[in-house]
Backbone:
């Protein structure tokens, strides 16, 4: 009797891996898992219920031999050397045309290196960003695959089945060659950093300037989630304010230390944007604020040494209204910056990205899903060559009607000592991007003065240099 062969394999049975493989099994595909931790293997088998539907082993040979060909093996392990280690352990057991999928947050150049390395050995490899957290992995994430288009066809039915659905459409699409999938996921995470920073700043403003209680904050964010700010992050933020603390009589949010950690994807987005020459200041400052938050002891000492203004009272209802407008404005700026980076990276790295398709698969399942993405999808589908979201005619009124609220709140924050760096940088980005003339002519003059770096003129073509000291 021939042993059963499973449709899909997954290495790494942590919370994300276990939930993803159970999702695969729930959608009509048999799945086999592998992990070095026997407890995780047993936990999957027990939760799976039927070993003919989902099974697992600590033995890599048993794992590989249990999969139908071409074998489709997904890795959900921490990015970095562990991915290389798992690949090396599997290689001797694989046959040509088998497929390895990296579903973690690997840096895109690592994906390019691994694809080239495995291609020489006849193994297909591609990266697939997965967003939605543990719950998304179980119930339907947004999936961002890129690499070999031919290899992806073998996995496509499974990914489309397990992905989140937006009005019936699967939130997954082949994005492009090489590391396109991992790159898109990286920028997705950069946008996520920006949106989280903006959401927290507005919370700080409402609390300090409007004196909103956590109950009022819960109600405010919940109401916002019913309108144009509808999004996963606004939704969970409203729920956070309602969470009571098990260890005290207070609310949990007030007991959490104000030190935010990070895994590096936001920093990668920021660094790569600088390499490309694309401005993403809202993402940049979101990364920097997490770094400033880590300096808790220094911040406490500095707070004791400097006087801070007492925030002037702000009419609560007016503040809530302006905060909604400003947050909507800033959300648009964060998405615009991320999409601009994707557009430029597509040309630089040969990804051939379809920005409308990317926005489309972000509409459900992922952490940055929002009602706004439906409008972004439409903007890029109607203008495929759109250089920046701010140039879309459909976004002009959205921005024009909310920018004044952002100006007022940034000004208020500066006068009253409430840091609003994300909102400030969103506004600065908008004002700079929409300025026909910037004072950088002076910088070019300075560069030419001290370093003979030359300059261009506004009245004629060519490169010029002046002997300034003469």
Residues:
């Amino acid at each position: 009797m021939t042993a059963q062969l499973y449709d899909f394999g997954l290495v790494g049975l942590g919370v994300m891996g276990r939930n993803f493989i159970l999702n695969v099994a729930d959608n009509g595909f048999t799945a086999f898992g592998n992990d070095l931790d026997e407890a995780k293997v047993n936990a999957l088998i027990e939760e799976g219920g039927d070993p003919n539907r989902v099974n697992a082993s600590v033995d890599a040979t048993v794992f590989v031999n249990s999969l139908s060909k071409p074998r489709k093996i997904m890795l959900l392990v921490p990015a970095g050397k562990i991915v290389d280690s798992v690949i090396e352990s599997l290689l001797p057991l694989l046959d040509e045309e088998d497929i390895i999928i990296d579903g973690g947050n690997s840096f895109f150049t690592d994906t390019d290196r691994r694809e080239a390395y495995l291609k020489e050995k006849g193994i297909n490899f591609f990266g697939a960003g997965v967003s939605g957290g543990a719950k998304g992995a179980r119930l339907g994430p947004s999936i961002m695959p890129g690499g070999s288009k031919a290899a992806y066809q073998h996995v496509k039915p499974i990914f489309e089945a397990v992905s989140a659905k937006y009005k019936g459409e699967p939130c997954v699409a082949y994005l492009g060659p090489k590391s396109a999938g991992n790159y898109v996921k990286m920028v997705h995470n950069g946008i996520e950093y920006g949106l989280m920073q903006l959401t927290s700043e507005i919370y700080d403003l409402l609390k300090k300037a409007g004196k909103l209680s956590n109950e009022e904050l819960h109600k405010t964010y919940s109401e916002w989630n019913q309108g144009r700010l509808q999004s996963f992050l606004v939704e969970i933020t409203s729920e956070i304010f309602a969470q009571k603390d098990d260890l005290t009589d207070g609310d949990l949010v007030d007991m959490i230390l104000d030190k935010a950690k990070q895994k590096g994807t936001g920093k990668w987005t920021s660094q790569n944007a600088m390499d490309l020459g694309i401005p993403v200041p809202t993402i940049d400052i979101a990364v920097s604020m997490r770094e400033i938050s880590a300096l808790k002891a220094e911040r406490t000492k500095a707070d004791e040494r400097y006087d801070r203004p007492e925030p002037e009272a702000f009419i609560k209802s007016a503040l809530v209204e302006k905060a909604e407008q400003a947050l909507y404005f800033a959300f648009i700026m964060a998405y615009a910056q991320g999409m601009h980076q994707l557009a430029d990276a597509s040309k630089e790295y040969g990804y051939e990205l379809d920005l409308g398709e990317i926005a489309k698969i972000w509409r459900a399942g992922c952490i940055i899903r929002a009602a706004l993405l439906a409008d972004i999808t439409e903007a890029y589908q109607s203008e495929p060559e759109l250089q920046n979201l701010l140039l879309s005619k459909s976004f002009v009124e959205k921005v024009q009607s909310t920018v004044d609220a952002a100006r007022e709140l940034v000004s208020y924050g500066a006068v009253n000592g409430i840091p609003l760096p994300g909102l400030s940088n969103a506004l600065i980005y908008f004002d700079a991007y929409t300025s026909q003339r910037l004072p950088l002519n002076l910088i070019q003059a300075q560069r030419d003065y001290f370093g003979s770096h030359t300059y261009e003129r506004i009245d004629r073509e060519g490169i010029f240099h002046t002997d300034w000291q003469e």
Residues 336 and 390 are 7 Å apart (CA to CA).
